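Here is one record:
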Amino acid sequence: MAVDLARLNVPVAARVPNEAPVVRVTDLWKEFPAARSFADLLRHAGRRLSPAVADVSLDVCAGEFVGLLGPNGAGKTTLLKILATLITPDRGTVTVGGHDVVTAAPSVRQIIAPVLANERSLYWRLSARENLELFAALLRLPVHDVRRRVDEALDVVGLSDAGRKIVGQFSAGMMQRLLVARALLGSPRVLLLDEPTRSLDPAAARAFRTFLREELGTRRGCAVLVATHRTEEAFELCDRVLVLNRGRVVAAGPARELGEALTGTRYSVHTLEPNHHALEELVASAKARRVAATSEGVGRWWRVELEIDGGDASARVVLSALITAGMPIARFERVVAPLGEVIERAIARSGLP
């Protein structure tokens, strides 16, 4: 299937003409030396550096969630750290709220808050409230306003009743909420989230995504960048996604549209006969493409995944043909392709090594 990825690479500024982007990244480039020691530096002198971020451009508006996808080493965390003023770019421009991350870093830090993976800056022997009071002091919040800010932050993330609890006794989900509470102390306009639900179970992760969307996006109007490997975060939480590979953007667009452009419209058929002759005929005539067939192990039911061009209209024709031919079908539904497959196809289509 021919896919015009350029059609999906629509800058958010073009879709929200009356609102200036809160985050603007233009032709960003960052390289790190391959050498890890002085001896390596001498040994590899003259060798070209490997770009961690290469010619990345991106706009993010208030209230928008943008996902950063890609394999390990794609440049997601490096991009977030540049936005957080933790790393200085080699070239290109990055502005947050109109402030340059290099020349006006202190101003950027006042309106941006990172919640990075492997966060170890919480003090486990202090209570949640004591942690927030400490960071409020580091943020130089007005002394008379600290109690109100801390109370509000704990209430927003649902930890009001756990404010006196020692952080070392927190669950992974409570720890993530406390990190977000800490980020909200300074009333940021931009949040950077690096795999925010990595350590959470599915139920806790879903609840946390709902909280992020409602509180950060809807109520506070924050611009949020999320680096993730989870399908649910890309398709349920993010308005748009960027697929990165070797530091470059290889595809961008609304998650569902991008997924369908790369993998086709996908449907799941639950049947007792995964090799039924009617299905084989549809595959042979290219009206459907078989992606996978897996046994559900109960009552000999199988789950067959198909890609069908033409969306729901073509899917109705396929389903009608299968039923008319007598294929036993318990359920026929539209499904989302796995995120890993979307990323792989985006990289393959880009032509980059």
In short: The domain at 265-336 is CATH 3.30.70.260 (Alpha-Beta Plaits). The first strand starts at residue 23 and ends at 32.
